[in-house]
Amino acid sequence: MILNLPNLVTLSRLMLVFPLVFCFEAGLNRWALVLFLLASGTDWLDGYLARRLGQTTALGAMLDPLVDKVLVTAALLALASRNLVPAWSVTLILSREFLITGLRSAAAEEGISIPASIWGKAKTLVQVTAIALFLLPAPSLAFPLYWVAVGLTVFSGGEYVYRTRAIWLTKK
Prior knowledge:
Elements: H1 5-26, H2 29-53, H3 58-81, H4 87-109, H5 118-135, H6 139-163, H7 165-169
Helix pairs in contact: 1-2, 1-3, 2-3, 3-4, 3-5, 4-6, 5-6
């Protein structure tokens, strides 16, 4: 079944993006924080359920990272719109995400799966933590952590490109 419990949890994360953005825009930081943490928590939950219940699907494998990107993109754009982070840094982060998605798609067409690296996972964790801190009255903690996230974004992007070089350098 395609719409199994893990995939429904993933879709619920997508549905949380819209009220999250509304709360960001309305300056309702506490509600935005609650929604962001809830949505971020479902990222762990859907993967856990899929493995535990033996309900991994191609749809889930495609939707999960896509919904993660939508969630983080929405939050970063909201932060940039409030001038809390520079737009160029958000552009850098989004460019990396599009590049990695493209590399993974190209690899998938060759029947190759590119799992997330420890650096990509660390990048996501630091991004989520920094975004959450921006929603608290703790910008002194959020801003340095955000720059660590930007650095990890660049490093992990380079690492993905390096790991996949055999795929995109080979000619058919």
